[in-house]
Amino acid sequence: MNFLTILLLAVGLAMDAFAVSIASGISIKSMHIYQPFVIASFFGIFQALMPVLGWCLGIRIADTVAGFDHWIIFAVLSFIGLKMIYEATFLKESEKVSASLGIYTLFILAVATSIDAFAVGITLSLLHSNIWFVVVTIGLVTFILSLGGVYLGKSFGHLFENKIEIAGGILLIALGTKILVENLYGWQIF
Hints:
This protein is an all-alpha fold. It is built from 7 helices and no strands. It has helices spanning 3-27, 35-61, 69-90, 93-96, 103-127, 131-156, 161-185. The longest helix has 27 residues, at 35-61. The relative contact order is 0.27.
């Protein structure tokens, strides 16, 4: 995977955390200077940790699925992308995020927004990617976007939240399609 692909993957995965960060910023009545950093740290750490766990599982099954791994990658990324689009389009705001932002709530939100990254970690093992570079990139991108999301949420409210999740879903579907096309036809798209 080249850097642009890794960066796009990181941005796509970070969209759930970014949208929840915006909602978190909306729900904070009186924001202390440390709160955005705590929220962004939770999302960044979990978004980096979950692909490692998925990768550990994936390396155990990589040889078994080597002949059709690109189809698995396409299916997983497309499923995650479609799930993000569905959630942004059809779920009520009350089903997405709690207004309380204690440590327990942040933990639950960080795990919930990083489950997709676990599945992506499995696909990374099939691509034989440098997992450490990828997860550091995913963690940093998620941290930066989540930090900005809290401030955006505090400043601009609900203007962007669903649109961001939809864009992230479309991006993941596009990445899955790119990987599938490159493996089926030998084309290098980007």
